Amino acid sequence: MRIDDCLNFDDFRTLAKKKLPSPIFHYIDGGSDDEETLRRNTDAFNDCDLVPKVLANVGKPDLSTNVFGKKISMPIFLSPTAMQRLYHPDGDKASAKAAEKFDTFYSMSTMANTSIEEIANISSGPKLFQLYIHKDQSITDDLVDRCKRANFDGLCLTVDTIVAGNRERDRRTGFTTPPKLTLKSILNFAIKPKWVFDYLTNEKFELSNVKSKTDKGTNITKSVIEYINEQYDPGMNWSDAEYVVKRWGKPFAIKGVMSVEDAKRAVDIGCTAIMVSNHGGRQLNGSRSPFDQIKLISDAVGDKVDVILDGGIRRGTHVLKALAAGAKACSFGKAFLFSLSAGGQKGVEKLLQNMHDEIERNMILMGCKNLKDLNYSRLTFRRL
Asked: What is the number of other CB atoms lying within 10 angstroms of the CB of residue 200?
C-alpha cells in the first residue's frame, strides 16, 4: 500500500503500523485504562443520522469558517500533538507545511521537537500553540512571549493533563521518549530498520521549546510521562488560566472543557474559544465523548465563543454531525499522526485532501450551500 492508495482512516493506520516500531504505533493508537472512552469518541457519532434536503440548488458549497480570528478553508484542523519526530523525521515541519497548503490551522504542542521560531520561519499559514501550565512559571511565560513574537494566531491552554493518564498499552510495550532500547523493546525496533536509521541519523531528539529551561523529557532516562508528572502544575486553577489570557492578549481557548459550567467560566475569564475534548480518550477513562457534550455546551455559550470539537473524528460526515450539533469547527490528532507516520508531509496532505473532498461531497448530498445550513434539525438521534 502507498500513500496514494489511502482512502480513509483505516488505510493510514494500516500503513503507519507497517512503518512504525510497535511501542510508537501503540502510543498513537491507544488510550487510558480499558480504552472505553477512546472507542466512544468515535462511536458516539453513530448514535445519530444526517437528514438531507434535496433540490437545494447547492452548486459548489462554501466550506470556510472562522476560528481564532482567522478564516480557514474548511472546518477541520490539526490538533496539537507532542513529539511528532517520533513518527516521521520531518515531524512538525511536515505538518505545518501541509496545513498551510490547505489554509487551515497547524497546532504546535509545548512538547514539540521543533521550536516555535523554526515553524514561524517556514509557514505563513494559520498557527495555534498549545500551552501547559508549568510549576516553573518562567517556562509558561517564556512560551507565551515567544509565541507573541513569532506571530502565532492563537493559544490554547490544555487543562486535562495535570497528571498523566494510565496508559497501560505504553507500559506493556515499553514506550519511552526518547525511545530506549531494552531487552523488551529491541526486537520491535530491529524489525523496522528504516525507522531506526532515520532516528539515528537525524537531529537529536529533544523538546525544543523547553530545552533551555529543563532537560526533562530530553534526557534518555526520562519519559514523557515523567515530564508531565514532574513539570506540569497539578494545582492549576482558573486564576492561572485568566493570567495567561491577559498575558497573551490574542484569541485564546481552553482545551479540555467538557461541562457547561466550565464553558461558562471560560467565557467569564475572557476566552474567545473552547475546545471540547477529553484528550483523545487518553486521560480520564469513562468520561463523556466530545460529541455527547457538544450540543449542551454550544447551546450554553456558542453565541459568545467559538466551540470546537476535538476527538473521535474519522470521516467528513463526523465533521458535519459535529457542526450540526453546534460546533464551529473540529480538530483531529490520531488520524493525522497516522498519515504523518505513513508519508510525512505528503501523507498529511493526502489526509487533508480526503477530508476536504468528503466534507464537500457530503455538503452537496445534504443540500447545504455553506456551514450555516447545518443545524440541529439536520440530525435525527436513534433510540437506544
From this structure: 7
Q: 3-state DSSP call for residue 254?
A: strand
**What's the predicted TM-score (pTM) here?**
0.93
Active site residue 134: no
Residue ranges of domains in the chain:
3-381
Give the three cell numbers for residue 33. 485504562
Cβ within 8 Å of residue 144, ≥6 positions away? 131, 155, 244, 247, 248
Which of the following is catalytic: 26, 279, 318, 356? 279
pLDDT tens for the 384 residues of the chain, in order: 899 999 999 999 999 999 999 989 999 999 999 999 999 999 999 999 999 999 999 999 999 999 999 999 999 999 999 999 999 999 999 999 999 999 999 999 999 999 999 999 999 999 999 999 888 889 999 999 999 999 999 999 999 988 888 999 988 887 876 666 666 667 778 788 888 888 888 888 788 888 776 655 454 345 566 666 677 777 889 999 999 999 999 999 999 999 999 999 999 999 999 999 999 999 999 999 999 999 999 999 999 999 999 999 999 999 999 999 999 999 999 999 999 999 999 999 999 999 999 999 999 999 999 999 999 999 999 875
User: What CATH number should be reported for the domain whose range is 3-381?
Assistant: 3.20.20.70
Strand 273-277, strand 306-310: pairing: parallel
SS3 79: coil
